Amino acid sequence: MTKAVVVGSGPNGLAAALTLAAEGLDVDVLEAAETIGGGTRTSELTVPGVLHDECSGFHPLAVDTPFSRRFDLTRHGLRWRWPDIQYAHPLDGGQGAAAWRSVDDTASGLGHDGSRWHQVFGSLSERFDDIAEDFLRPMLHVPAHPVKLARFGTYSLAPAALLARLWSSTEGRALFAGVAAHALRPFGSPVSSAIGVALGTAAHRYGWPVAEGGSGSIAKAMTRMLEQLGGKVHTGVSVTSLHEIGPAEIVMLDVAPAAAARIVGDRMPPRIARALSRYRHGPGTFKVEFAVHGGVPWTHEESRRAGTVHVGGTFEEIAAAESAVNRGSMPDRPFVLVGQQFLADPTRATGDVVPLYAYAHVPSGFTGDATAAIEAQIERFAPGFRDRIVARHVRSTAQMEQHNPNYVGGDVVTGANDALQLVFRPRIALDPYALGVPGVYLCSAATPPGAGAHGMCGYNAARSALRRSER
Known about the structure:
Elements: E1 3-7, H1 11-21, E2 26-31, E3 42-43, E4 52-53, H2 66-70, E5 80-81, E6 85-90, E7 96-100, H3 103-108, H4 114-126, H5 128-135, H6 146-156, H7 160-163, H8 170-180, H9 194-205, E8 210-211, H10 216-228, E9 232-235, E10 250-253, H11 257-264, H12 270-277, E11 284-293, E12 306-311, H13 315-327, E13 336-339, E14 353-362, H14 371-381, E15 389-395, H15 397-403, H16 419-423, E16 440-442, H17 456-470
Parallel strand pairs: 1-2, 1-10, 2-9, 6-12, 10-16
Antiparallel strand pairs: 3-4, 5-8, 6-7, 11-14, 11-15, 12-13, 13-14
Helix pairs in contact: 1-10, 1-17, 4-9, 6-9, 8-9, 8-13, 11-12
């Protein structure tokens, strides 16, 4: 039986392990931490019984992919739950906007901007299954749906600042700014619309679901399926060199590019080692988990029903904050993403104390304390929020990296989403998963299609390994 070893038990490492085990390989997963899951871990960080997602909290691209169709995790305990409103964007004075699952409902709340919202996201959401089939793969392939992909590319290739001109109202522009900010890129840079267009379309096609019981439920379901297929997961096992792994025909590395170069060492061809050493990481995140009495008193009513709330004010304010962060400067009013997963999944709360997930975009390796800035931004749109805080758990950029070494400098998306890396990551290659050493592959979020608990990086990498093994 062919032996395979997977280093790292994040969603991509486990997806790679499942893909290999399903083909009859003997698979071991080695995880350095004491708990599995990587970016899909859930813990009681503040108050007993209150469950907090430690990194990934929402999974719009996880519910219908080639991986999820091949491996039905709902048969192993995973349950998806959706909020009433997928994401919302409060503005001063109780104003704001909201993205519903329905494109029509979203458009109707945007007044005269509704037709333009429908123009972009309505047409894409109808075709998104086919579009996703192409963009969830490496870019260097023959598209299965070239016309549909081209339409998606028309909007995605534009700078966010340019695409935002489609909307003239403060509300419409802000609603797009919040989802575009997920790219952690300056709004004037090329392709800075891509992440926002993809996530915005996914909100209408699939919603932004959460995993019942926390994102850790995803890793648990994957592990149960893996064990059923004969695979094994070992925690507390750190790997710093291929020599520590032992005999294995296939090795999958769910690690950052620089870590992969260190593990493979001088066996890696110099040109590939140089490419991985030049891989660029993006801005960091500063995360605060709150335990809150009764939820957040948003003055914008629809934000009280939204799973995700984008906090940062107008399009212009968010654009300025993202530009500052990418220059290495900490803004006074950072963009803050707030997660209210408990609205879709009440099992995360205890009594009237609910978990609140919040992180700010900060410069890479930011050494300051952004707690006050995060609280001030939420208080700005929800007066009285501070009075409801029961407990906090703070994780700085350094602590984010310590918690998960793939998050270099606090970069939770495992790589800057600039134009080159968004298309070719971690390097320009026909097979971006191969590391130039027979049987050794990179399968982390630094590979296509990038960040998210969708498992497609690991699935694609494992399929590449299987094809090469057959040859």
